Amino acid sequence: MGCEPTETPEDVDIAAMRAKYAQERERRLRKDGQRQYIRTEGQHAESYEHDPHNPVADRVPISEDLDVAIIGAGWSGLLAAYHLKKAGVSTFRNIDSAGDFGGVWYWNRYPGIQCDNDAYCYLPLLEETGYVPSKKYADGTEIHAHVKRIVDKYKLDKRALFHTLVRGVRWDRSIKRYRITTNRGDDIRARFVIMAAGPLNRPKLPGIPGLDQFEGHTFHTARWDYDYTGGSWEKPELHKLADKRVAIVGTGASAIQIVPHLGRHAKHLYVVQRTPSTVDVRQNPPTDRRWAKSLKPGWQAKRQENFHKAAMEGLLPGATDQICDFWTELNRNIQARMEARGWPQLPMEEFMGLREVEDHRVMERLRRRVDSIVEDEATAEALKPYYNFLCKRPLSHNGYYDTFNRPNVELLDVSDTLGLEAMTKRGIIANGKEHEVDCVIFASGFEVTSELRHRWAIEPFEGRDGLSIYDHWEDGYQTFHGMMTHGFPNFFVIAFTQGGLNANITLTFQTQAEHIAHIIGAAMKRKATTVECSKKAQDAWVKHVRETAIDMSQFAGICPPSYLNNEGEDKLRWYLGEIYGPGFYAFADLIREWRDNGDMAGLVIR
Fold it and tell me: What is the pLDDT of residues 121-130, one digit of tens each?
């Protein structure tokens, strides 16, 4: 299986587009950067800490000694539990504020929710569970069902602690354990802690003046209110909106899936946009059962590697793009152009020039798609993305642009005012005009580049001698292999820190979870009290990561403000952490060889 390169326009004035991109970026810059958003805390906390899916049951506080506490029960926490059990570690708990496993796939149940990555790659442990997704881009319900499939098969829910928010983590030298306190009054003493909170665990709200004055209904897409809209996660027929005027703020990954549903059901819909997304065709046929039956052992790992190379690192001569979607189009087209030229050894500058040309052609194809669907010229122009590919997360949907042809749907482009100017008792103010609405839905994303202290929201979080993790990492991550840090014995993190990044986020997490479980399992077999990376090993890893890093600052600096570049702030904190420059598979090989060597080099074991 494979696919041909796409046909992209050749009549693109690249010099003019560079100037246009710069102009569009400049008029969207805000001096307040991330401060333009407000946090779901204080007066805004109640509706976001409330669980609309499962009631919170009363329970008595827990006081116990535990081998491993896993903070989080999304993909990273679930995969940590799976690999711990595989490594022979049985006494662990996942602790999560949600009512079940799933993380973003537990909380996010908005109408139309699907994964925008190839599900055959994205859903982990497919071969282990004997499951093949029903289609290329799985619905949220199917993804959550796969979460439960893993949990049930490996009996990972026996000791999970849900509706429990970790408040404090502190190393207690006297007992050589971490004391974990929670909002339920628990006192958990864990030998090891794995921080697996995930990058999308905290919704954020736009700091619109007058937000608290609005007398209508509001909610965030991550806490969809079906009691208000009607319908359900499984059948999102939003019949209660038939007499409602609705505004949705944001046009990113969640919004483009939601807007068609709102457009069909609301009396009137305002779509508030600051920067448009790229929205390509979504080819999402059902799984070919003959293909599924033909799959040989190891097929998922091979497909995941193909996706990563096709989407991020580039296809090599003779390689076939098995994924064939909007993520892989650019590199597939570059490969075709290189093949047509006989794969010459190009200087980096010349290769990047070739890449820029194809980038502009792909983006022009996407802009012309808008013109081919949206009937109103002004609306179509406002929906066109003027930036380089991957400046914003690429998206696909077959009904998003068509929705703007409905008479009840209106695009409010607020790029000139850098967002909504205000909210009033009755509605929203955009471009100097008040629009009365009954409901405002915030599709404003999550905190992925804010301060770690706020994202984790655990205080204190202390290692040896009261060292705060936030102070320890204030000037940048200090890790060994991205998963351990000196001064915090028996502590591990699954996150975007200083390691290999795969185009498929779940494989990134699985690779880390397997490595961490190996270390914990080995330490327990040795009856070790503590395991910690030495400062020397940590410093050497940090040096190596930074010496081999790929400088992303120039690219981030030409992109419009978004969470990908820290909202355009001068001090770039790349939300993906410090990526291991040699690549994901080079990183995976490195840590596998480290494990196979067996001497636990760089660790101090007591």
Answer: 999 999 999 9
Task: Tell which residue, 82, 64, 83, has the closest CA to residue 191.
Answer: 64
Cβ-contact 395, 277 below 8 angstroms = yes
Please give the angle made by the CA atoms of 420, 421 and 425, to the nearest 5 degrees.
95
Rounded to whole angstroms, how far apart are CA atoms 365 and 590? 40
How many angstroms separate the CA atoms of 425 and 398, rounded?
Answer: 35
Q: Average the pLDDT over each of 147-161, 464-478, 564-578 and give the range with the smallest value.
A: 564-578
CATH 3.50.50.60 fits 63-202+448-605, yes or no: yes
CATH number at 33-39+203-282+363-442: 3.50.50.60
More confident: 300 or 52:
300
Residues 6+ apart with CB under 8 A from 96: 71, 72, 73, 74, 77, 103, 160, 161, 162, 164
Closest by Cα among 401, 377, 362, 388 to 282: 401
Structure confidence at residue 570 (pLDDT): 64
Q: What are phi and psi of 326, to 5 degrees?
A: -65, -20
pLDDT at 39: 61
Q: What is the mean pLDDT of residues 228-247?
A: 97
| pLDDT at 38 (0 to 100) | 62
Domain ranges for the chain: 33-39+203-282+363-442, 63-202+448-605
